[in-house]
Design goal:
The protein is an alpha/beta fold and 566 residues long. The protein has 18 helices and 24 strands.
């Protein structure tokens, strides 16, 4: 007797092979039958006639930063609205365990500074009470709407071992203790370890976060914690992937341990990491450069963390007013005239100054939410084409409550370099930051974006095949963290699915909400077209609405079964 039978579906099974019509049966959370359910469908507890609509595996998001949010939001919004049925957190070296009593706020401040998660929300929403990483996992081992896995973060490990010395070089004793703690975390169920060597990750005092400049000796020592274990992935955020010394210790860890490493990367003259990935792959090892669907960017608005009008004294005087009153001022000709005659007070930080003054790099989000504007679609470009003052165009855009996207690394009018990276053989799809950058991003929506834009609506270049996109967001991403029991629609795999009206699939515009603990703010983006999201054979979302069931669980590394195709 089946728990669930889905019939008459157009199945894209996650392996990348062509779509096919068929049916799926689920029992005890696992797929047990495929295509021919004629003998068992009448006995299924629940039957869903897909009506020829698209059926995919549930999506696997490996870069979410939900380390705090798991404590208060068992739905893990907004990822649950975009078909995600498995999430991995503990990214970029930041997290909340291990921690010594009295140090909790230091970890909150680091997360707040690096990932733009309101500290007030973390202070109110996290129950604390743990010290070890194992105790943290026990605390968050609760039902969820999706499965959740965690990595042990380098910053917390360093802080726990070295205290206020955590910004300094480590001693041999420090390295040995850090290695021991990482191994204990892996044995307790961590899916891996993460570290940041990125110059943009700063604490509140402007210091590079602990571990950024950790020596190769320290990284090799921590890598030794993986020896002899049959699970564990290492995530490395690094600015030095073109440096031979950096690549040497990365390669040595892989050869010593056999474990997978995933490194964040972006387009440009960054070929050495891809060349090393090719070499490792030929040698039976797995180096997976991690790519985002969109360039590193921020969304700016009146309510956002970064507001390009905040440099003007007249706007600063009204910034505390309710949103609609601010908009009324922006529409007032006298207010506009005053703004245009003022001397702005610029940020001292050169990046922040660029975000708020480089009008040729500010792009209003288009109605199609393509995140791929034309090169002349900037605030300055619109002003030049319409003979308007650029500040008038800026205030028009903000008064319409339209988000303005700003690309960190520059933008040349096309996302093709980013999509080309995703197409590379060894790439893995990531960087959604679902629970992070709350006031400037809502990239938890990228699974929906990839389906409806890159696989269907994109006209500036050939759309990517739907089967390929689904593969990159399911089997391909799951395998990077050893989650070989999911991401494929085949007997023996987890009964995780999305039933999608592909023609109707769409994103809603980003909006700011104040639903975090302590009324903390965050940008969200909802979707249309998900007929059902199913976790372990149970429908968790139906037509965009939660059913209230919580079949998800905490994933513990080392205890995850392998699927028949892995």
């Amino acid at each position: 007797m089946l728990d669930l039978a889905i019939t008459n579906a157009n199945i894209v099974d996650g392996t990348g092979k062509p779509a096919f019509d068929g049916s799926v049966g689920v029992k005890d959370g696992k797929i047990v039958e495929l295509t021919d359910l004629s003998k068992s469908i009448s006995k299924a507890t629940r039957q869903i006639d897909a009506g020829g609509q698209l059926l995919t595996p549930g999506f696997v998001d490996i870069h979410t930063h939900y380390d705090g949010q798991v404590c208060w939001d068992k739905q893990l919004t907004p990822s649950c609205w975009h078909g995600v049925t498995t999430a991995v957190m503990g990214n970029c070296g930041v997290g909340f365990a291990p921690v010594k009593a009295g140090d909790e706020n230091r970890l909150i401040e680091l997360m707040e500074s690096v990932e733009d998660i309101p500290g007030s929300a973390l202070n109110e929403g996290i129950p604390w009470g743990w010290e070890s990483y194992s105790e943290y996992l026990d605390t968050i081992d609760t039902p969820y709407v999706m499965d959740v896995g965690s990595q042990v973060p380098h910053v917390a490990i360093r802080r726990y071992v070295m205290g206020d010395r955590c910004y300094d070089d480590s001693t041999d004793a420090d390295i040995n203790r850090m290695s021991q703690l990482v191994r204990e975390a892996l044995q307790a169920g961590a899916l891996g370890f993460s570290t940041s060597r990125f110059y943009g990750h700063l604490d509140k005092q402007g210091n590079l976060i602990p571990g950024t400049n950790a020596a190769a000796k320290e990284m090799l020592g921590i890598g030794s914690a993986f020896k002899g274990l049959n699970h564990g992935t290492i995530e490395i955020i690094s600015d030095y992937l073109e440096d031979d010394d950096e690549l040497a210790w990365i390669e040595q860890i892989m050869r010593d341990t056999g474990r997978t490493i995933t490194t964040l990367t972006a387009p440009g003259s960054r070929e050495k990491i891809w060349n090393l990935a090719d070499t490792m792959n030929k040698d039976g090892l797995s180096l997976r450069p991690q790519c985002g669907a969109r360039p590193a960017s921020i969304l700016m608005s009146l309510e956002g963390t970064i507001n390009p009008l905040a440099i003007f004294p007249s706007y600063k005087a009204i910034r505390g007013l309710p949103l609609e009153e601010q908009i009324a001022h922006l529409r007032d000709p006298e207010f506009r005239k005053k703004i245009k005659t003022e001397t702005p007070k610029h940020h001292r930080n050169p990046d922040a100054k660029r975000f708020t003054t480089s009008y040729g790099e500010m792009y209003p989000l288009d109605d199609a939410l393509s995140y791929e504007p034309g090169i002349n679609d900037s605030i300055q470009g619109i002003a030049d084409a319409s003979n308007k003052h650029h500040l008038d165009v800026l205030m028009d855009t903000l008064a319409e409550k339209r988000q303005i996207i700003f690309f960190f690394g520059g933008y040349k009018g096309s996302l093709e370099p980013y999509f080309n990276n995703i197409k590379r053989e060894n790439s893995v799809f990531g960087l959604s930051d679902g629970g992070a950058h709350c006031g400037v991003l809502c990239d938890a929506s990228v699974p929906t974006y990839m389906l409806c834009y890159s696989a269907r609506d994109r006209t500036v270049a050939e759309p990517m095949p739907l089967e390929f996109i689904v593969h990159k967001m399911t089997q391909n991403s799951a395998g990077t963290y050893g989650l070989h029991d999911r991401g494929v629609i085949a007997p023996g795999y987890q009964g995780d699915f999305n039933l999608i009206d592909f023609d109707a699939l769409s994103l809603e515009p980003p909006e700011m909400v104040y639903d975090l603990p302590s009324n903390g703010k965050r940008l969200i983006q909802k979707a249309n077209g998900y007929l059902a999201t199913i976790k372990a054979g149970e429908v968790t979302y139906e037509n965009g609405e939660s059913t209230g069931v919580m079949p998800g669980r905490l994933l513990r590394g080392g205890s995850i079964a392998r699927g028949p195709y892995s």
